[in-house]
Structures are given as structure tokens and as C-alpha cells.
């Protein structure tokens, strides 16, 4: 094998992987809203979870991406551990679609012949002014590159029959009985770890089988190894996540390792069953029969072997799911035992809940995590406003100082959360996203800025109160009642804002009249209280310095209303469907 041939093979592999990523990206952007709709199907029913996993993986053509997404959603609290296990099982079934697509279109039909002519269609679509057509164009180009890469890989793999010494070396590795099965299983595992794509490893295995490099049994062992290797991606994603995310990733490993164990124990009968299915379903030779050999993929034997390998992949994951789906609660208990909850978990109260596992491989779905975190941010901000409300009426200096420190801390927390969400959104924006998602991300940037300003307002109120206390001033009963009324109106504005955030997240936001009503109430209260203060100062009934502190707090509360109405308006512009 020459150096040029080696680099051609590696380049073809790169083209295959790039094409798969581009096709997946185009599919995600074209079906972004529909993908998010799949979340509603992720219920406590394991069978619905399995179907959701099958659906999403069939769409984005990557079980690793689906599993990482599921781990992230568990980390975010969008899915329970039990729900996630069902989705992961479905993802393993969904990934078999890729194997059949490659086996049939890449070998049997050899669609690479049409790949170049299809490129012009992809180019024309990608230059369209309509965003949806651009996404479809990217999908078509990715599809073409995938099968061109597969075709170049097949052509650049040397024919071992022309080099008997190399063929003898490869054959030797297949001559150790069950030890060879374990050897090729390990090879499939390592290759998947390196490529980080079970679909790419499956394609390579299909090529090795079709070229006569390895017998059918060893190719099947490699497929079993791929199912172990693909679990590493989720475990890497979960390593920086919370306990539940790590448990979800571990459940994927347990699921696949268990499947490989029973498949190895029943290796010969399992292969015989696959062979019988190919024989009876397609009328092809039994690839598991003794003496079966592949000379090239174009032969009947070659087709039987390719279909047999794809059938083994499908049957393995289907059988494994049908066995383990009944034991989902037990798997959840097992991973909870293996990965116990940390002792000091309660200290992570102000840690980001929804995006600590990092951006997803599916940018369109990462928006879900960011939105959940923004809703959580709004709830934290509302909690901070309750401390400001308590500080206004607190007369005990020691208790006031405790409340003031909490408001300062909440301001710091707001700064940190804004920064971390913005960093996450930057990473999402760097990926391939649809125009609609881009608009939503822009709205989110504005929203987190307004929420950070709300944290500043709480700290500002604490400083005004501190100055009042230093100058030994106090509010009269009427002023206290008025401040309570403003604080209650701010709470009502928070409730309206959070209601709108949740509705926008669900795609149910129609209008923001509740937010406008809350803002109008704050404005009216501010105007009424200001007139009373001015009248009191004119009559000499009010102390000027105390009135300044009082009106500063009133004005700050009104400003908080402005920040909240801005958030609802951003939601209206970015998330209400016209």
C-alpha cells in the first residue's frame, strides 16, 4: 500500500465523516422546531422514550449526538433518569438506519454515481434566499459527500488477493477461534473511540468485509465492539455534568456492555439466526454458513454479507432493548448505586442547573437548555427581590445587614449567571443554526442582560437603605405601606414575566398584555406616590432627605418594571409566531 493510497484512504474517511456531519447539521436546521417537539414525547413511559430515541437518531443520523443530548437534558432536569434510559435504548436502534443506508445505497445501489450530479442541486438550494432551502441544500451536499467518501474509501482499500503475504497476515488474526472474536471486538471498540463515530466504524467494517479482508464472523465481532466504543462520547460529555448526567451516561454503558455479553455467550446461535433471516427474507446465501466467503461486494455473497452485518446490528439492538426495557427502573437503581449522590450537593444551589454539561452536538436543541436556564435565572432574580422587600421594612440593624449581604450576593450571582449563559450562547451561535434559532438567541442575549440589571436593582436598593440608616432616618407608616405596595407590584410583574417566559418556551405565547398591565400598575403607583411626596414637602409635612431615599427606592422599583417589560417585549419579538 503506497503512501498516496494511504493518504487517499484517510482523506476519503475525512470526507465521509464531514459529509455525515454536514448532512446531520442540515437535517437539524431544516427540522429544528420538529426536533424540539420530540421533547414532549419524552415521558415516563419507557416505550415512548424508546420511540423518541429512534426518531431523533433517525433524523440526526448520530446515536452519539442523541446520547450526548439526552445526558445534557438529564443534567438540565428536562428528563428524569428513567426517561433518559428509554431514549438511549431507542437511540441504539435508530443508529441502525445508517448501517442499512450505507449497505444498500453505498454498496448495492452505489449512489456515488449520482453524487456529483446531485451536487449541483445542493449548490442551487444552498444559494437560495429562503433559509429552509439553504438547509436542504446543505443536507444534499452532505449526503453526496458521505457517499463519495465511502466510494473513495472502497477504491483506495488495497485488494489483498494481489498481496498474498498481507492476506495471510490478516487471515492469521482470524484463525484463533473465539480469541479472534474477542480480538476483533476490541479492535471495533478502539476504532470507534478514535473516530468518535460508530457509523464511520460500521462503514469501515462493511468495506473490510466486502473486500474479503475479514470473514463474516469477525465483522460481526467488530460491530459488537462498536456498541461499546460509542458509549465513551456520552461519558465524556457527562464528566463535567451533575450526578444525574453521569448516571445517564453510565446507563448507556451498562446497556451496551450487557448486550455484548449475551451476544458473545450466544455468538454462534445468534449469527446462525441472522444467517437464516437473510436466507429466508432476501433469498440470499447464508453468510453465517460454514465455508461462506466474500470475494467482492458486487457478488451475491457480498450482498448477503453486507445485509447480514446490517441485520446483526439491527437485531442486536432490538433484542437488547426488548430485554432491558422491562428493567429500566432496575438499571436506574444500579447506576444510582454505582454513582452515589455527593454529600455536599446542597451547596450547589446557585450553580447553573441546565447547561453545565456544555453545548450539545445538536445546536438547534441547545436552545432548549439555554431557555430553561433563563427561566431559572428569572426565578433566582425573583427570590432576590423578596430580600429587597424584606430589607425595606427591617428596623433591626443586624437583620438588615444580613439581608443587605444577601442582596449583594444575589447581584454577584446575576453577573455570573449572565456571563455563563452568554458564553454558552456564543458556543451555540458558532455552530450551524437556522435563521429562526439565530433570532431567538439574539432575544436571549437581551433577556439575560435585563435579568442582570434586575440583580443590580436589588443591590441598589440595599445601598439606598444603608445610606438612610447611616443618617439615622426612618420611614413613617404611610411610606412603609407605599413601599410594600410597590414591592407587591414588582412581584406581580415578576410573575407575569416568568409566565411569559414559560409560555414562550412551550411555544404558547400569544401576547404580553399581562406584562403591560403589571408595568402600567407600577407606573401609576410611582406617579401617585411622587405627587404625595411633593405635596408633603410643599406643606412641610415631609423631611427632605428621608423623602429622597423614599423616592429613590420607588424609582428603582419602577425601573425594575421597565426591565421586566423589556424582557416580555423581547419574547414577543423573538418567540411569538407571526
Write the layout of secondary structure elements.
Elements: H1 3-30, H2 32-37, H3 46-60, H4 63-76, H5 81-94, H6 96-108, H7 112-126, H8 131-156, H9 164-172, H10 178-195, H11 198-210, H12 216-229, H13 231-238, H14 243-265, H15 267-282, H16 300-324, H17 328-338, H18 363-393, H19 397-429, H20 435-470, H21 477-505, H22 513-539, H23 544-575
Share of helical residues: over 70%
CATH superfamily of the domain at 363-575: Phosphate transport system protein phou homolog 2, domain 2
Q: How much of the sequence is in beta strands?
A: under 5%
Sum up the overall morphology in one term: elongated
Number of helices: 23
If you had to describe this structure to a student in words, what would you say it looks like?
The protein has 578 residues and is an all-alpha fold. Among the domains are: 161-338, no CATH class; 363-575, Phosphate transport system protein phou homolog 2, domain 2 (Methane Monooxygenase Hydroxylase, Chain G, domain 1). 79% of the residues lie in helices and 0% in strands. It is built from 23 helices and no strands. The protein has helices spanning 3-30, 32-37, 46-60, 63-76, 81-94, 96-108, 112-126, 131-156, 164-172, 178-195, 198-210, 216-229, 231-238, 243-265, 267-282, 300-324, 328-338, 363-393, 397-429, 435-470, 477-505, 513-539, 544-575. α4 packs antiparallel against α5 (81-94), α5 crosses α17 and α12 (216-229) runs antiparallel to α14 (243-265). The longest helix has 36 residues, at 435-470. It is elongated and about 110 Å long.
Amino acid at each position: 500500500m503506497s503512501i498516496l493510497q494511504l493518504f487517499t484512504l484517510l482523506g476519503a474517511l475525512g470526507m465521509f465523516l464531514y459529509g455525515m456531519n454536514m448532512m446531520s447539521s442540515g437535517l437539524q436546521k431544516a427540522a429544528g422546531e420538529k426536533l424540539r417537539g420530540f421533547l414532549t414525547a419524552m415521558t415516563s413511559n419507557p416505550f415512548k422514550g424508546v420511540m423518541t430515541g429512534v426518531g431523533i437518531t433517525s433524523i440526526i443520523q448520530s446515536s452519539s449526538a442523541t446520547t450526548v443530548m439526552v445526558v445534557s437534558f438529564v443534567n438540565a432536569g428536562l428528563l428524569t433518569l428513567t426517561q433518559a434510559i428509554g431514549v438511549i435504548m431507542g437511540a441504539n436502534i435508530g443508529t441502525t438506519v445508517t448501517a442499512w443506508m450505507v449497505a444498500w445505497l453505498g454498496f448495492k445501489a452505489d449512489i456515488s454515481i449520482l453524487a456529483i450530479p446531485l451536487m449541483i442541486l445542493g449548490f442551487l438550494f444552498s444559494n437560495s434566499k429562503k433559509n429552509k432551502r439553504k438547509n436542504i441544500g446543505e443536507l444534499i451536499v452532505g449526503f453526496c459527500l458521505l457517499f463519495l467518501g465511502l466510494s473513495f474509501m472502497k477504491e483506495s482499500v488495497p485488494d489483498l488477493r494481489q498481496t498474498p503475504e498481507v492476506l495471510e497476515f490478516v487471515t492469521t488474526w482470524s484463525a484463533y477461534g473465539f480469541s479472534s472474536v474477542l480480538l476483533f471486538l476490541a479492535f471495533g471498540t478502539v476504532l470507534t473511540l478514535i473516530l468518535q463515530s460508530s457509523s464511520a466504524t460500521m462503514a469501515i467494517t462493511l468495506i473490510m468485509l466486502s473486500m474479503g479482508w475479514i470473514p463474516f464472523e469477525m465483522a460481526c465481532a467488530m460491530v459488537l465492539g462498536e456498541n461499546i466504543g460509542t458509549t465513551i462520547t456520552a461519558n465524556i460529555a457527562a464528566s463535567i455534568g451533575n450526578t444525574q448526567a453521569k448516571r445517564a451516561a453510565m446507563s448507556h454503558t451498562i446497556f451496551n456492555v450487557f448486550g455484548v455479553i449475551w451476544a458473545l455467550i450466544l455468538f454462534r446461535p445468534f449469527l446462525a439466526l441472522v444467517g437464516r433471516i437473510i436466507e429466508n427474507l432476501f433469498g440470499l446465501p447464508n453468510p453465517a454458513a460454514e465455508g461462506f466467503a466474500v470475494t467482492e461486494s458486487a457478488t451475491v455473497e457480498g450482498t448477503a454479507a453486507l445485509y447480514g452485518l446490517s441485520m446483526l446490528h439491527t437485531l442486536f439492538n432490538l433484542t437488547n432493548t426488548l430485554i432491558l426495557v422491562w428493567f429500566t427502573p432496575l438499571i436506574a437503581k444500579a447506576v444510582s448505586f454505582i454513582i452515589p449522590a455527593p454529600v455536599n450537593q446542597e451547596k450547589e444551589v446557585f450553580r447553573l442547573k441546565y447547561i453545565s454539561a456544555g453545548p450539545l452536538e445538536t445546536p438547534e436543541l441547545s436552545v432548549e437548555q439555554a431557555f430553561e436556564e433563563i427561566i431559572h435565572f428569572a426565578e433566582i432574580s425573583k427570590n432576590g427581590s423578596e430580600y429587597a422587600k424584606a430589607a425595606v421594612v427591617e428596623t433591626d440593624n443586624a437583620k438588615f445587614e444580613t439581608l443587605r449581604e444577601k442582596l449583594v450576593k444575589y447581584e454577584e450571582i446575576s453577573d455570573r449567571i449572565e456571563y455563563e449563559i452568554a458564553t454558552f450562547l456564543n458556543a451555540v451561535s458558532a455552530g450551524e443554526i437556522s435563521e429562526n434559532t439565530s433570532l431567538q438567541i439574539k432575544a436571549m442575549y437581551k433577556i439575560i442582560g435585563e435579568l442582570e440589571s434586575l440583580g443590580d436593582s436589588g443591590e441598589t436598593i440595599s445601598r439606598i437603605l444603608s445610606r438612610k440608616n447611616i443618617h439615622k432616618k426612618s420611614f413613617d407608616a404611610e411610606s412603609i405601606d407605599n413601599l410594600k405596595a410597590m414591592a407587591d407590584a414588582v412581584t406581580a410583574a415578576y410573575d407575569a414575566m416568568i409566565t411569559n417566559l414559560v409560555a414562550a418556551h412551550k411555544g404558547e405565547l400569544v401576547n404580553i398584555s399581562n406584562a403591560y398591565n403589571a408595568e402600567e400598575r407600577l407606573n401609576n403607583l410611582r406617579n401617585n406616590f411622587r405627587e404625595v411626596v411633593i405635596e408633603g414637602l410643599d406643606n412641610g409635612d415631609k423631611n427632605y432627605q428621608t423623602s429622597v431615599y423614599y423616592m429613590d427606592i420607588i424609582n428603582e422599583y419602577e425601573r425594575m418594571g421597565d426591565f421586566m417589560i423589556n424582557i416580555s417585549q423581547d419574547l414577543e419579538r423573538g418567540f411569538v409566531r407571526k
